[in-house]
Design a protein that fits this description.
Strand order of the largest sheet: 2-4-3
Number of strands: 5
Distance between the termini: 47 Å
Largest sheet: 3 strands, antiparallel
Radius of gyration: 19 Å
Number of helices: 6
Shape: extended
């Protein structure tokens, strides 16, 4: 039966619900970066929503300490953030994680001090 389904799907494996649930349980309980993100940020999908890389990493390490959890290395934070859909981007000489908004305090735009036209924003962010 499984072989027939595989042939019917052009040899593409489908994701199982049980596998997805197990992965989410792992990420929620053992992946401290994922757990920190879920608790403190909204992943918006909007590339204009950014959080300072240095601030997020510093806050993550403090959060782990306050919750008696072991923080991963900064390199590992960056990798895991990317896997969570929040890649690092460089803007005006500083690094930011994209697609994020803070849940509690709200988002502080990195462009607050200047008024850009929508055309300038497209040039800056692609």
């Amino acid at each position: 039966e499984g072989v027939q389904r595989l042939i019917k799907n052009d040899f593409r494996l489908t994701e199982s619900k049980a596998c997805n649930e197990a992965r989410e349980e792992y990420r929620s309980t053992l992946d401290t970066v994922h757990h920190y993100l879920k608790e403190n940020y909204l992943i918006t999908g909007n590339k204009m929503d950014m959080i300072s890389k240095a601030k997020l990493e510093e806050d993550y390490i403090k959060w782990c300490s306050a919750n008696t959890l072991t923080a991963v290395s900064k390199r590992n934070i960056k990798d895991r953030m990317g896997k969570n859909g929040c890649p690092v981007t460089k803007y005006q000489g500083n690094y930011y994680y994209r697609y994020l908004k803070e849940k509690e305090e709200g988002f502080k735009s990195i462009t607050e001090k200047k008024d850009y036209t929508s055309e300038q924003m497209k040039t800056i962010f692609g």
